[in-house]
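P.,

For your records, the input lines for the assembly:
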Amino acid sequence: MAFTEEEVKSEVIWAMKALYNKGLMTGVGGNASARLPNSEEIWITPSGLYKPRLTEEDLVKIDLEGNVIEGVLKPSMEWHFHTEIYKRRSDVNAVVHAHSPYSTGLAIAGVEIRPITLEAALMLAKVPVVPFKYPGTKELAEEVGERIMGTRLLILQNHGVIGVGYEMIEAVTAVEILEEVSMMTFIAKMMGRLIEIPPEEIEVIKKLYRI
Amino acid sequence: MPYGYVGRVLWINLTSKEIKELTFDDEVLRSYVGGSGLAAKIIYENVPPEADPLSPENLLVFMTGPLTGTIIPGSGRHTVSAKSPLTGIWGEANVGGYWGAELKKAGYDGLIFEGASEKPVYMLIEDSNVQIIDAGDVWGLDAIETGEKLRDKHGKVRVSAIGRAGEKQVKIANIISDGGRAAGRTGLGAVMGSKKLKAVAVKGTGTIEIAEPQKLRRLISRVLVTIRADPHVQILASYGTDGIMLPMHTYGDVPIKYFTVGEWEGLEKICGEAIVQTILVRQYACHACPIGCGRIVKVDEEPYKMEGHGPEYETAAALGSLLLIDNLKAIAKMNDLCNRYGIDTISTGSVIAYAIECYEKGLLKTGMKLEWGNPDLAIRLIKMIGEKRGLGELLSQGVKKMGEELGGEAEKLALHVKGLEIPMHDPRAFYGMALQYVTSHRGACHLRGLMYQIEQGVRIPDLGIHKRYHRDTLMDKPEPLIAMQNWHDLLDSLVLCKFVAIPPATVAAMYQLATGIDLKLKDLLKAGERTYNLKRLYSIKCSPIGCEDKLPHRFMEEPLAEGGARGMIPRELQGALKKYYELRGWDEKGIPTEEKLKELGITQS
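Structure tokens returned:
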């Protein structure tokens, strides 16, 4: 958890490296932002730079209207949806966007996540899919804002995924879990079978977890 | 002064306008901690039990705790306490948001209001600049408008205010903070109104000194991951507190038609998931909260047009299922109206439901047609309660007084414990809740014990709750209930949110790192036991009802015919109560013994 501006910046840098090293984005693909709780200013990755090599000095501080407060570089083109999420979710302090291949690929193929693991049955049962809008536009931000309530994950159709969290670890972990389950789904489908957890067991799990 | 506290409490005499600064010595802080625990000591020692709650003799105590306003998760709450005008015994309410943290940053641990102003006033606190200001321009405004107006005048102040109901001393009036967070229960808004205190506006720029800031940060970083992974927390984060509605309904816990029906399809339309899908526009979190169960909702269409704080579970049930209303937009409007008038949604839903039942049975005569499932009628009644007008004057007194006025059979139908309306958990669905309700010091309280969680299998080893408890037994419940009540009274002293799932031993570690006080968990739990007993003792001194530990007839004699609690009745309540008293060190009437009081260091005044 970040308690200072310096820690916030360091978590954004860490997120980019983590997502890249996991193969969830290319060096020029994703972006991330974070803030101190309740702050109306965020630190966001810059546009156009090679993400795994970013340093704290490269980050840009913007307000929730996109005005640059600190930094010399241009903020990520996706700042619209980052700020839209922070406006609607004061419980969210970190946002990441990746191009997770299996998660995005399944959505492109129109394949839904089925209850094949505990995480899939509980956390991923209702991941909203945002219809395609051109990246970096206000229209995309509006669609994201409409669907971000009550979830930690969104899939952007023909584009990628968004993970949010109270802190950066949570946002990154959400994206990782989605990708892991998507990969399992892909493998199972390639092998020709997909055995789901029986519905009655899911009911037991839901009752146990009160979901 | 230990760390964590700022070391100053203001004592404001609204009659003379004199303002004094108080400090508490370390021993008092070790024994009573802060929050409503410290408030209990202040009220016990200064408000005579025979005092009229709406007289200048009563004190109104806003209090934070040693952890309030720090980076500790869930530390955004404060407590309000007084002798209750609704019940005539100990009264307290607990509220989230940012006001408490702001008060600490302004340099005060609490505010004690004594006396009554001749003319309406509000209090402005900007760090050391403390003023009592004429409230002529905000008296008569609703609680939310009052906050907006004071922010227009004074900049970014955090405001706690009463609405018109508090001004009119409606006995179910509450105090609204941060534009929609309610110190809801026991009618404390009426006490504020009786003092002609419209609002307290606070702006603070200071910092709270922590004994071991680096160690505290490291501990919190480790704890946050487990908090957010907790399944209950995930429900709250995803769907707000109303996310529990459907799961709890599987147990028959959600009250329907004033606790007479066990199943109802309408819940699907008013649950947390429905809020997300229909009227939710924003989620928000209180100060230092990793959950964010707060909801901002918007309805565009008349007659329910509104934008503001959305209904929590208790509200969605009290203004929804309790009245057979399944129109979520209407419930959002009703909630907004309650917040604006400043009336408790639990008590409001209850008085309306009770009135409808009495009307249907011919026990209440009125020119209005009272019926179930009619949101427009409910809205009309909310306005009448808020204005204390017509039938609303009767309803504004709470169900106990209503029952006494209506008399006969009607009195038996009034659902309350010690004058406080039953919250939205059916004690027939979880027997531990039956014992919890009757032994709570402020009357039927859903927040001290949370036995419905324990009875669903939650184990808290730090409190000695190791085994699986079932919901349909009672004789094994006194031990875990006492442990939970003491723990929750401690949380109300610290002051921490009960939804943030931090294990008790970790909370104790956080307390030590924040304050530098070397109290172990067992010492802190002893403080919880101390305040629980003190509040009980004060209630008993105020009124014989303070130890009337009984459930209304309905819950003991009328089983539900359907649903998850079908046929269930907590029949062993008397036996469990006897065991509870013994374990508590109370006599056979439920009065703390001299020996117990001596052990806890409580002196009889």
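Two observations worth noting. Chain A has one domain: 5-209. Helices of chain A lie at 5-21, 79-88, 101-108, 118-122, 138-147, 168-190, 199-209.

Regards
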